[in-house]
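pls design
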């Protein structure tokens, strides 16, 4: 019996060991299966190729459908006008038929004019009436409020008492006036402007001081960048969203300004002709290009795409600095030894030559093109009469030893003069023309190097000035408050040394060129798109 029990115990122990081993094998298989699954998932997620997020494709049909839902269909204007015309014609026909049917005893027929008078005499009805108001008499209303009717009151209804009391305290509001003057509603142009496809003209708010809403966009010449290390000219077209960029490499490029891509429209190379200044004519049909090294200029016709080389007069040596009159008739050029040459804009022939006592460094036409202001080394500003070809006034620039820049606001009321000492004086034009030593309205001392360029924006609200002798030497002033905008340029803004600056015709953009081959484009969000 002892041996049999031992045998049974051993058999049971063997069964238990086999069962435990089978369970361990099963658990290990499950663990390996789970680990392999996790490993495959990990490899698929983290070691496999990254899947790019799907971008929404542009669908012009969907965009057009959404535009019709939001803004309406442009064809609705014509259909609405046609429907209104048909309804008016049908009303006139009905009026005529009624006139023929409604004859008086004397046989006279009602005219259309009498019908119109009757329509205008119809009194408008009240839009909403509360039937419960008729149930409350004056005594009932006063009894509910526990008060008595004041002496001298003649109202018989409680609603009448409330209406009269409201008019005495507040008055009759405009929305409660039933008989309104509908002259503006009868205007066809007003009906068209009220359509969803047309927007009313929004009044532009005045520019506030302190900070200006400005943003740097893509450079104007980012697509090319071959105008030279020194980009000397940047200007916006007077009629189209186009800008020119030119530099000392002799390359002039024309770009379509949109703030995103600024695609190049055309580019031309003037051999051995470093461009110091390039300007659009007033009508925008031509570009005049001048250089410091040659006694001739180039004229590029934007319509025909041809370039004409025109020699200058024998007394002229270059066209490094010149200005085109606002009426487009004349070109004023800074010459040698204080000479100022007046050329015909069409033929480039010499019309007249003036002479300053010192070298002439800057020129500016008045908005009416009748006068020309010049500034130079003597610290005096000269005023030249274009018609009489003579100097009519001389004024001393306050604290200036040598003038370097001058600009006149588009309104003609202000004049800004910059000096080599880094001072900008802001004058009233009338005061400057009347006094020999005028007192500036504002003396700006934000820069300490020579002022190289000055520019007013077209609305005469901003004065921008810069110096090419120092990095980021650029400022903008709010003219109404005569304070500097503090948020541009910032410490992170890298303009380098600004050489030229220009505002777009609508003040929406500001172009700044520098000595690194860039033509920056800034968006002034306070103004329109261009």
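designed seq:
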């Amino acid at each position: 019996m002892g041996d049999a029990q031992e045998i049974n115990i051993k058999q049971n122990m063997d069964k238990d060991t086999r069962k435990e081993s089978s369970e361990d094998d099963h658990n290990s298989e499950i663990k390996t299966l789970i680990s392999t699954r996790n490993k495959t998932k990990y490899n698929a997620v983290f070691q496999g190729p990254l899947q790019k997020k799907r971008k929404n494709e542009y669908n012009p049909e969907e965009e057009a459908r959404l535009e019709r839902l939001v803004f309406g269909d442009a064809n609705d204007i014509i259909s609405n006008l046609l429907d209104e015309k048909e309804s008016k014609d049908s009303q006139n026909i009905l009026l005529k038929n009624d006139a023929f049917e409604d004859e008086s005893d004397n046989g006279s027929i009602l005219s259309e004019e009498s019908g119109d008078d009757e329509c205008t005499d119809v009194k408008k009805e009240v839009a909403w009436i509360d039937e419960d108001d008729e149930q409350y008499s004056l005594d009932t209303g006063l009894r509910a409020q526990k008060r008595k009717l004041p002496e001298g009151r003649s109202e018989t209804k409680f609603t009448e008492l409330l209406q009269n009391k409201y008019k005495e305290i507040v008055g009759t509001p405009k929305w409660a006036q039933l008989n309104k003057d509908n002259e503006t509603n009868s205007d066809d142009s007003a009906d068209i402007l009220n359509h969803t496809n047309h927007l009313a003209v929004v009044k532009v708010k005045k520019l506030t001081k302190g900070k200006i809403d400005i943003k740097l966009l893509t450079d104007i010449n980012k697509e090319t960048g071959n105008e030279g290390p020194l980009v000397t000219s940047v200007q916006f077209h007077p009629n189209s969203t186009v800008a020119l960029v030119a530099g000392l490499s002799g390359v002039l490029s024309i770009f379509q300004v949109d703030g995103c891509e600024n695609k190049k429209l055309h580019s031309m190379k003037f051999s051995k002709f470093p461009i110091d200044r390039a300007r659009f004519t007033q009508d925008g049909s031509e570009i005049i290009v001048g250089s410091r090294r040659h006694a001739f200029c180039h004229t590029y016709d934007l319509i025909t795409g041809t370039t004409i080389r025109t020699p200058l007069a024998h007394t002229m040596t270059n066209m490094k600095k010149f200005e085109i009159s606002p009426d487009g008739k004349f070109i004023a050029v800074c010459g040698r030894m204080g000479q100022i040459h007046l050329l015909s804009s069409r033929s480039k022939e010499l019309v007249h030559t003036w002479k300053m006592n010192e070298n002439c460094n800057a020129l500016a036409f008045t908005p009416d093109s009748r006068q020309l202001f010049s500034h130079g080394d003597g610290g005096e500003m000269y005023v030249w009469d274009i018609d009489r070809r003579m100097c009519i006034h001389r004024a001393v620039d306050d604290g200036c030893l040598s003038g370097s820049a001058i600009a006149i606001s588009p309104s003609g009321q202000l004049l800004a003069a910059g000096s080599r000492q880094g001072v900008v004086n802001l004058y009233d034009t009338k005061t400057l023309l009347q006094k020999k030593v005028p007192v500036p309205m504002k003396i700006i001392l934000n820069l300490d190097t020579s002022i190289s360029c000055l520019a007013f924006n077209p609305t005469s609200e901003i004065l921008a000035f810069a110096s090419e002798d120092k990095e980021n030497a650029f400022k903008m002033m709010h003219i109404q408050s005569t304070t500097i905008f503090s948020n541009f340029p910032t410490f992170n803004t890298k303009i380098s040394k600004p050489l030229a600056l220009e505002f777009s015709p609508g003040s929406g953009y500001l172009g700044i060129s520098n000595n690194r081959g860039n033509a920056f484009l800034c968006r002034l969000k306070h103004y329109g798109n261009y």
